[in-house]
Each structure stands twice: as structure tokens, then as C-alpha cells.
Amino acid sequence: MKLRYLAIPIVIAGVLTTPFCTTIVPAGHVGAVYDKLEKGVQNYTLSEGFHFKAPWQKIKSFPVSIETVYMSADDREGSEGDESVTVSCSDGSLNADLTFSYRFDAEDVPAVQKKYRGKDGKYIMNSVLRGQLRTWVSEVTKNYTTMEVHLTNTAEVNSKLTEYLNKKALKYGVTFENVSLAETRASNDVQRAIEKRQQIAQELEQQKLSLEKAEVEKKEEQLKQEKAFIQAEGERKANEEKAKGLSDKILKQMMIEKWDGSLPKVTDGNTMINLD
């Protein structure tokens, strides 16, 4: 009976202390350990799953598998209200939805948490990096025109964004993948300017094609004339040869017609004339 009475407070104590002595690190995350008695952030992390910990330890989660974020004008997963970004270009600006995937590098998590005084990965992404991203995006797009960002060079721009954001995010222990301006929107004035440039570009392309066609036709005409000249030259030489052949025949015919049938009469003493 006494043991039963002793077990009750032990169970109650266990129930009350369990939340302070255990933690669960979500799937795809690591847990950074902050220990009040061991000089703050520890240099190791906890893997995903259930763990025991000291009551004075705090565990902060950081995603180390891919997380996808939408910063869009409408309400989507990862986007709270209108989170679209304004991107600066060399000749104006656009409004755009930004989407990207990211993860924290597990080995960098302790250093990142030390820098941000025990904050977790969600806080660092939402309160620190999202604001930086707006600046970083414009640092890339300012090298392009609105038409290039909006229409003609989207793949190149997105590739440059991924490369540049990874460079800038090194100190945050974050790796970005598939950074993309998923949808860009131009103001009416910018849209009209883009359409005007498109029209001019099409006209220039048409002029270029017309010039190329004229050049091709000119070369074809030159080849045609050269071919005709070669053919005419060949015919002229053939006629000359033919005329020469005819002249020889005519001379021989005239000699025959004028010959009276007599043989040469002048001979030397040693020459015998064959009368056959």
C-alpha cells in the first residue's frame, strides 16, 4: 500500500516534468540546443525524432530538407497576404511573385543560432531573410530591362537570381534552389512601353529579313549572269571552231574545183613520177 502511495506522486511528477525533459524534432529538421548552464548554444544538433533533454535546455528547429516559399500577391502556401516584390530594372520597375526553395545546412546551424541569439529557422527566414530577398532580387534585375525580365530573358534572370542569392545567403547557412520570378506584372505605362519596343523589334527583324532576302536575290542574279556568260562564251568558242573547220573544207573544195587534173611537171633527174 505504501508503495502505491509513493508511486502516485512519482507519476504526477513525471507527467509534470516530461514536457520539460523531452522534445520532438520535426521530420526534415535538426534541433539546435541552447543550454543555459553550458554557455549557451551547443556545437551539436539533434536529429529528427524524440529526444530527452535537460529542463534548462531549449531546442530550436531548423529545416534541412527542402522547404518551398511563395511570396505572392495572393494567399498561397507560405504567403501571408500580399507578399509580392517590386523589382527594379534598368528602365523601370515590375511587380512580381517570388518563389524559391531553401534549406539550412545542418553543420552551420549552431553558428547561425549563436548569431541570432537562439532564434529558430522559421524566425530567421521570415524576419531576416525575406526582407533581404527583396533587395537582393533588385540587385540582379537592375542589370536587365523590364522587357527582358517580363518576357524575353526570364530563364536567364531566374538562373542569375539563384546564383546570386546563394552567394549572399552563405553567412546565414542557407542554400537556395529554383529561385524564380513566377509571375511578373507591369503597370499600364510600362506595358505600353514594352509593347512599343516589341513592335520596333519586330519591324527591325522584318527589315533585316528583307535585306537578307534582297542580298540573296542579288547573289542569285549574279550567279545567273555568270552562268549565262560562261554558256555564251562556250557557244562562241564552239562556233569559232566550227567556222574554222568549215573554212578548211571550203579552201580544199576550191582547190579541187580549180585543179585541171594535170600533175606537176617540174622534176629533177632522180625523181620518178607515179602516174597511177
The N- to C-terminal Cα distance equals 168 Å
The biggest beta sheet is recorded as:
4 strands, antiparallel
The total number of structural domains is 3
Give the CATH superfamily of the largest domain.
Band 7 domain
Strand content: 15-25%
Question: The CATH topology of the largest domain is what?
Answer: Tetrahydropterin Synthase, Chain A
Helix/strand class: alpha+beta
In percent, how helical is the residue content? 40-55%
Oligomer: single chain
Helix and strand pattern: HEEEEEEEEHHHHEH
CATH class of the largest domain: Alpha Beta
Question: How would you describe the overall organization of this protein?
Answer:
Helices cover 51% and strands 23% of the residues. With 276 residues, the chain is of the alpha+beta class. It has 3 domains: 19-62; 67-186, Tetrahydropterin Synthase, Chain A (2-Layer Sandwich), CATH 3.30.479.30; 188-252. Strands 6, 7, 8 and 9 form a 4-stranded antiparallel sheet that branches. β7 (85-89) and β8 (92-104) form a beta hairpin.
